[in-house]
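It is worth pausing here to work through a concrete case rather than discussing structure prediction in the abstract. The textbook approach is simple: state the sequence, then state the predicted structure, then interpret. We follow exactly that order.
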Amino acid sequence: MNKMSSDFYLKLGKKIYTLRRNRKISREKFAELAGINDYYLGEIERGEKKASLDMLFKIANILELKIHELLNIE
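Step two, the predicted structure:
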């Protein structure tokens, strides 16, 4: 993974984590809603794993965002 790509996934993971926490959804409940295990969700939130596009759509939907809102990383 190149530097730009890894920075993006770190920022995206942090954004997902922050949005999930702001909505007071536990990691376990969020993972259940997304159809994944909570360990994998933790890896996504820490930027250690890349989520598939399908998974990003699920995450955006759970967070009540459009995909472009989720992927907009400043």
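Step three, interpretation. The mean pLDDT is 94. The domain at 3-71 is CATH 1.10.260.40 (434 Repressor (Amino-terminal Domain)).
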